[in-house]
Amino acid sequence: MRKGQTFALASITALLAFTLQACGSNNKNESSPSASSSAPAASSPAASSGGENVTLKVWGDLGNQAVLEEPFKKINAAFAAKYPNIKIEYDFAQNDQSLNVALQANELPDLFWVQGDKTSKMSEMVKNGFLLDLTSYNMDLSRYDDSQKSYCTIDGKIYCSLPSFFDTNVVYYNKEIYDKNGLSVPKNWDEFVQGLDKLKAAGVTPIALAGKSEWDRAWPIFALAPAFANDALQAAQNGTGKLTDPAVAGMFQTFRDLVDKGYFGKDFLAQDMAGAQFSFTNGKAAAIIDGTWNNSTYVASGLSLGRFPIPNKDGKRIVQSSYSNFMTYAIASRSKHPEEALKYLEFLGGQEAQQIMEDATGLVPTIKDITPKDEGVKELGVFDQAGLNIYSVLTALSSPQSNAADMMMKDVIPKLMTAAITGEEAAAILDKAATYPAPK
Fold it and tell me: Does 278 map to a domain?
């Protein structure tokens, strides 16, 4: 891709076919179900209630309830109008703990959200017999491309509703603060750092960071990794390189340098995400690095909002790529109403429900017939290349004995934030934890 090239929203879908799907939301990593869990018996379609009045229990994403509550009220109301015999009991009850308890007890709701191939969780649930195979139900997938189908596919079979939105990480910035300090969208990394220095000298926290929150403190790493080390991560994933590559070590060191230079402020280690977001929206911090899934949160704050992807030293804007799991739901194999549950999945996979989600959240659509909410959404889709997500790469390099992805989140990043290790040492820790494939 040549420098300065931008992608229209409609073309993101095709581009993603060549990229690894990644962690794209504010969701926490889910622990694996125990291998000793007894596999539940799958319900037969013959067990469906047909046209009878039935109730489906659906679990929503508790961690993103603030963003998703409004659109799902409207989506469920629209579904009820179309299928009056199917009652939806939608409860924001799902997080790591509740899901794992339900898996251990074989007491899953009829439907619940999954992260597709972004982590190994869905694959493990399939292997343990928890999810209903949707392949034989002849769902209409004509609006989707192969990469979106791949998100939901395990061993050639489909297990969830398909994704229709794109997730990545960007720098949200306060235009008024930038203008006041003579700053504009940086053309390259050096300009970005010079701007951070200028903001710090003016007594403004350059970037708000939730150092207390395991996932939210990682967003700078998720943004820096493709910008600085995309080729090295691709090589490691393919077995033709290692995580000790200087580009990977340099990327981790860059994150530590941001910490050492005070660009995240004085008290970021004790700050949670709500505190970091408030610091940004009330003008104490000039910017925050966050996901496109939280775009609506910042729009609602009323500040003069701008967005840009982190540029690398050459000025190229390579962003982590991921599909949003806001509307990707699976059906439990023990559901007594698989036919009705399938109707709900099909509704989630249709344009009506997706447009409701878009209008409420301002996600980046990957399907042409979803109309972007506003010009700000279009701004989120401006970049030069969709790159890898480091968490997904590390997940692919993990084994049952050594989880490199979790090691980065729970060990490496905290140590970088507290100056306990260098970028080179961070890369070495992950290299030791990784299991590389045979070169392709």
Answer: yes
